[in-house]
Specification:
This protein is an alpha/beta fold and 257 residues long. It is 46% helix and 16% strand. It has helices at 20-31, 38-48, 57-72, 76-91, 106-113, 125-135, 142-167, 190-198, 201-210, and strands spanning 7-14, 34-37, 97-102, 115-122, 181-184, 222-226, 232-235, 253-254. The strands form two sheets. Strands 2-3-1-4-5 form a five-stranded parallel sheet, with helices on both faces. Strands 7-6-8 form a three-stranded antiparallel sheet, with no helix packed on it. A hairpin with a 5-residue loop joins strand 6 (222-226) and strand 7. The longest helix has 26 residues, at 142-167. The radius of gyration is 20 Å and the shape is globular. 30% of the residues are buried.
């Protein structure tokens, strides 16, 4: 591609267990966006580039690692395929798109593909370890969490070192990269993180540009309570799914008072 086209989508990115996919789900439910799994898109593009499918797990790992290096280095044909694949999916969408990516290489996708809004979520290793243990019902004692936090930190550092050595590009965005917004999710519940992000200048500016594509919704103040998780919603959005627990059963919503 000779020039960067602007991808009319919001990209939410971060390391595993930073909350990128959760925040993307909240944005989709609150702002009536369609939600795409960016990691699934990345895998589909990878499979489409294969002339001969790998026959062993080891071959697949080597091939996939080279593919990620091509993504990191901004190899034109790979970036074009990523953009084309997402664009084709977007032609089937009836609403604006929010895409969640998880992993250390995803920032380069935003850098190369120029989305309308790109957010990198940061979270310290201890918090990520605590979330990992909670999700997989692992022991929650501090020693076990500290050990996992060290493993996550070492894994991130090793991964970054390999890619920086092979591509001379850091897979983690620097704070000087102004086209990427940053937020720290450490100790912040998902609904509060959504409130924090939704007040960012980059978010409000991008939302103003894309809001014309949103289906018209009757401007009416709504207030209800999810009877599954006790989340209370107030606003004008016509939600059919609870942003906190994804409950969509109409019989499990009620008056909060």
């Amino acid at each position: 591609m000779s020039e960067k086209a602007t991808l009319p989508a919001f990209l939410i990115e971060g390391l595993p267990y930073c909350g990128a996919s959760t925040l993307a789900t909240f944005i989709a439910n609150t702002y009536n966006f369609e939600l795409f799994d960016g990691n699934d898109i990345l895998t589909q593009v990878f499979l489409s580039t294969l002339q001969t499918p790998p026959t062993t797990p080891a071959e697949r790992l080597v091939t996939y690692t080279q593919f990620l290096r091509d993504v990191l280095s901004g190899k034109p044909e790979i970036v074009f395929q990523m953009f084309t694949h997402i664009s084709q999916k977007m032609t089937q969408a009836t609403r604006p798109i929010v895409i969640s990516f998880t992993g250390t290489i995803t920032y380069s996708i935003a850098k190369q593909m120029n989305p309308l809004f790109s957010l990198w979520i940061h979270c310290d290793e201890t918090e990520r370890a605590r979330r990992l243990h909670a999700k997989h019902s692992l022991p929650m004692d501090e020693n076990a969490i500290k050990q996992t936090a060290v493993l996550l930190s070492d894994q991130d550092a090793a991964y970054n070192a390999v890619f920086e050595k092979s591509t001379n590009i850091s897979p983690i965005p620097e704070t000087s990269m102004m086209q990427v917004a940053f937020v720290n999710s450490t100790g912040v519940p998902p609904e509060q993180l959504l409130q924090k992000v939704s007040t960012m200048e980059q978010f409000t500016t991008a939302y103003a540009k894309i809001s014309q594509q949103l289906p018209e919704i009757e401007e009416e103040w709504r207030r209800w309570k999810c009877l599954v998780c006790n989340y209370v919603y107030e606003g004008t959005q016509h939600l059919t799914t609870c942003p906190r627990c994804n409950n969509s059963d109409p019989d499990k919503f009620g008056d909060p008072d």
